[in-house]
Amino acid sequence: MSDRPPISPREETRLRAVDRPRLHAQVVEELTRRIVQGWWAPGSTLPTESELAEQFEVSRTVIREAIRLLGSKGLIMVKHGSGVYVQPVDAWDHLDPLILINRLEVGHDENLLTQLLDVRRLIEVEAAGLAAVRRSVDDVETLRQIITAMRAALASDNVKDLSTLDLRFHEAIFNASGNLVLRQMVWTIATLFQAARHIHGGRPPRRAESIQGHVAIFAAIEAGDAECARQEMLRHINQGAEDIRTSMRARWAGDRALAEGGAARSAFVVD
Fold it and tell me: Which of 85, 137, 145, 245 gives a 20 to 30 Å CA spacing to 255?
């Protein structure tokens, strides 16, 4: 009997042979999912290059490129003449979007979500305070334009534009902070935003309330009130955290129901 975890119907679809476009990227996505799900324990070896090529119905060249990318993510280590070994979880790049999303979705790792939200609070709350003190006239105008665009996107129910503008708003705050090092950390926040969008299934809840949170942050920055800007950013992040937890727990409950349903059906199968 296999020690692998039960596969839900959603996972069964993913495990089919990959389509021809973006071959190595799709192999990377699938192998990342399997490693995070625990198909192979840390320290164990992946199937051989030939076995993976046969399994995914791709060339060995595609598999070699996929293995190279998995190594860059810290998921595996290649020992020439010995095999490809799964790395300990501590070695993984936990800000890699693919690893991050899979740990949340497949791994049901709520502790990781808590840690990610800690990072947002540590970085963005102080960034808002700095922006209130250091913002320029151009910074204020940029934020104002983003708020206007957000309201238009909400009115037309354009969720894609809302997500893009949300990230642009937070990026504009980083720019307004006047801290070059802090500006370069915006990619970290972008990764967290990408994970949040995935968890919400592309349609985040309480969109109107979220925009009001942005408006309150903007008002404090425009007024030059650093303490108020920090408080409003913290309130905004906490609201988002509550929404993400609700969405994530709903997804996990759905996954459990699918898995239990599959197990119940399999009980009636006679070998």
Answer: 85
